[in-house]
Design brief:
With 366 residues, the chain is mainly alpha-helical. The protein has 15 helices and two strands. Helix 1 runs antiparallel to helix 14 and helix 7 (161-170) packs across helix 10 (230-253). The radius of gyration is 21 Å and the shape is globular.
Length: 366
């Protein structure tokens, strides 16, 4: 069932209390809720990690296989950083108060081969609104050989998904930039999420143009300029996406596809039992809250709970806001899920995939 409805009546006290405390934090510390100097520096670093190696690959100075793969792998970390730590905030509108800056930085997603329009619908609208709700949250809509929800259809082929999932995580961004964006554009048109046919046609043209531009400078130009076999450059390009795909997939999936998180369904009238904020706490988990390196590298997305309830605030503030969110949740009887390390989160995520693949989890309904 799509487009379930949430009651926000019982959420009013919680949301008011949380916002009052968050606003007090920013006011007393004389801080903006948007990006600070640290965020600007991070943006420059991530853009540099992606573009500088590609510039070197386009000069003809790269002549060895080792140097080729090193540069592409560095690009992979830069691409991940742009996706999770730059465009993610920009498309949420949490990078800057200036909408033009947010829009321009959002286009960095197009610069790495994906599409900002599709992401905004998939992530901002469908995932954030309907987290872990089967058929509504597009992040858990998977092909038949994968099962991310206990409410999803079970097939015998999923029995070993906890083993082969890592291959598909690795190639996820390759599939994303070549086919997935086009498939979703068509689906979102059919769902009525694009205004009219002209918008759809315009988006197709823009999407093809951006992707052609991306492949031109990230793959074709290095093939022309680097004096190495074309298949080595292709493998280097794929290694870049292997890094990005693995990092992005793991970070987003261990925040929601976990044994402790819920997968509620609406009733026959399309209504959810939990209110929206309570639903976000029930379906989302933090991980590795003490890791400063991870926090910097993945755009603060180890604080997924804070991101889901405060998506309009730049991620650089999540760590300081987490005690406020956790305390407020405790006072209102909301469970605050957190794993102490990314290792523990990955282990639990793998266990969840195994249970889902073997159909050992009973479907949950609201």
């Amino acid at each position: 069932m799509k487009n379930p409805k949430f009651s926000r009546v019982a959420d009013n006290d919680f949301s008011k209390t949380l916002r009052q405390r968050v606003n007090h934090y920013f006011k007393t510390n004389n801080l903006s809720k948007k990006a600070n100097k640290t965020m600007v520096i991070k943006t420059m670093v991530m853009l540099s990690l992606f573009f500088i190696p590609l510039i070197l690959l386009s000069t003809g100075l790269v002549t060895t296989t080792g140097f080729l793969f090193t540069l592409y792998i560095i690009c992979g970390f830069g691409m991940s950083g742009i996706g999770m730590g730059v465009m993610h905030d920009a498309i949420h509108g949490s990078y800057s108060k200036n909408k033009t800056i947010n829009r321009l930085l959002g286009y960095t997603f197009n610069m790495i081969g994906a599409n900002a329009t599709i992401w905004k619908i998939q992530h901002n609208v469908l995932h954030h609104t309907y987290t872990n709700i089967d058929h509504a949250d597009d992040d858990i809509n998977t092909p038949f050989f994968l099962r991310f929800s206990p409410n999803g259809e079970h097939h015998k082929s999923q029995r070993f998904q906890h083993i082969y999932i890592w291959f598909f995580y690795g190639i996820s961004t390759i599939f994303w930039i070549t086919a997935k964006d086009f498939v979703r554009l068509k689906r979102y048109k059919n769902m009525g999420l694009l205004n009219h046919d002209q918008v759809y046609r315009t988006e197709i043209i823009k999407m093809i143009s951006w992707k052609t531009f991306y492949y031109s400078y990230a793959l074709v130009l290095p093939m022309i300029m680097v004096p190495l076999p074309w298949w080595l450059i292709l493998l280097g390009f794929l290694s870049m996406h292997l890094v990005t795909g693995m990092m992005v997939s793991i970070v987003f999936q261990i925040a929601h596809i976990m044994p402790a998180t819920d997968f509620p369904l609406p009733n026959e009238e399309g209504l959810m039992t939990n209110e929206w904020y309570r639903h976000q706490f029930a379906t989302t988990s933090n991980f590795a809250p003490k890791s400063k390196l991870l926090f910097w590298l993945i755009g603060g997305l180890n604080y997924q709970v804070e991101h889901h309830v405060l998506p309009d605030i730049c991620h650089v503030h999540y760590k300081r806001l987490s005690p406020i969110v956790a305390q407020t949740a405790k006072e209102f009887g909301m469970t605050y899920h957190v794993k102490k390390s990314i290792f523990h989160a990955i282990v639990d995520h793998t266990r969840m995939l195994r249970l889902l693949g073997k159909n050992e989890i009973i479907s949950t309904a609201a």
